[in-house]
């Protein structure tokens, strides 16, 4: 499963990129606001740090303006992936961009039927928001299972990008279902390494090592 960092924080992206764990980045207007940076400038910087897809979201609601925004955004770098909302205008924009060879991430997906539409519109990625789905009394992971089943039934090539990931269990469940990608905040990605027995094991080994009186260097 590919890991995308869900952030526009350059320091976090650089740090995670050094681990070799990051296959791409997702941003949205809220994350750009949080970064305090100019949208175009920060997107360009992110595209220079990671080789994989970097999602940059349009903010227009109509197809014509979405296309103009997308045209500006895709000129930033070859690895820009245009993010469009799951609306009819968004899907129309998805089809036009896909036919033109541009990667598209269809975002704000909350139903399997919406995911079906995105695949039919040729989306590169579909982004179901599991955390927000859970928050509203639905089962986010059931949504991922349903989309996996439908995409496999028809051999759609659209990749399932599990978004709005809040904790390690979301990551584990997404991997077990066979999602193609998950995007999570840096804190969640770093947290995946933690295990109390790992910490305890290191502590025990170091204590015994000190008792040997030896040094490797
Ligand atoms: C990813 O593309 C989404 O923008 C993001 O995962 C949304 O997450 P949130 O629900 O935590 O804002």
Automatic annotation (TrEMBL):
Keywords recorded for this protein, A-Z: Cytoplasm, Pentose shunt, Schiff base, Transferase
Record CDD domains: Transaldolase_FSA (cd00956)
UniProt signal peptide: none
Compartment annotation: Cytoplasm
NCBIfam families: fsa_talC_mipB
Pfam families: TAL_FSA (PF00923)
Active site: 83
Pathway noted in the entry: Carbohydrate degradation; pentose phosphate pathway; D-glyceraldehyde 3-phosphate and beta-D-fructose 6-phosphate from D-ribose 5-phosphate and D-xylulose 5-phosphate (non-oxidative stage): step 2/3
Function in brief: Transaldolase is important for the balance of metabolites in the pentose-phosphate pathway.
EC number: 2.2.1.2
Name of the protein in question: Probable transaldolase
Coiled coil: none
Primary localisation category: cytoplasm
Regions that span the bilayer: none
């Amino acid at each position: 499963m590919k890991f995308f960092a869900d952030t526009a924080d350059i320091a976090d992206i650089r740090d995670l990129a050094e681990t070799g764990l990051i296959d791409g980045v997702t941003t949205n207007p809220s994350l750009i606001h949080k970064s305090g940076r100019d949208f175009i400038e920060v997107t360009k910087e992110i595209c220079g740090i990671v080789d994989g897809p970097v999602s940059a979201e349009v903010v227009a609601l109509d197809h014509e303006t979405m296309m103009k925004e997308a045209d500006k955004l895709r000129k930033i770098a070859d690895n820009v992936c245009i993010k469009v909302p799951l609306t009819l205008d968004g899907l129309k924009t998805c089809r036009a961009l896909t036919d033109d060879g541009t990667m598209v991430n269809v975002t704000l997906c909350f139903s399997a039927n919406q995911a079906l539409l995105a695949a039919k519109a040729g989306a590169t990625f579909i982004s179901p928001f599991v955390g927000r789905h859970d928050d509203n009394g639905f089962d986010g992971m059931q949504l991922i299972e349903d989309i996996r089943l439908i995409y496999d039934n028809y051999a759609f090539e659209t990749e399932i990008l599990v978004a709005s990931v809040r904790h390690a269990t979301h990551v584990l469940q997404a991997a077990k279902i066979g999602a193609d990608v998950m995007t999570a905040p840096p804190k969640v990605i770093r947290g995946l390494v933690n295990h109390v027995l790992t910490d305890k094991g290191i502590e025990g080994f170091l204590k015994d090592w000190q008792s040997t009186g030896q040094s490797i260097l």
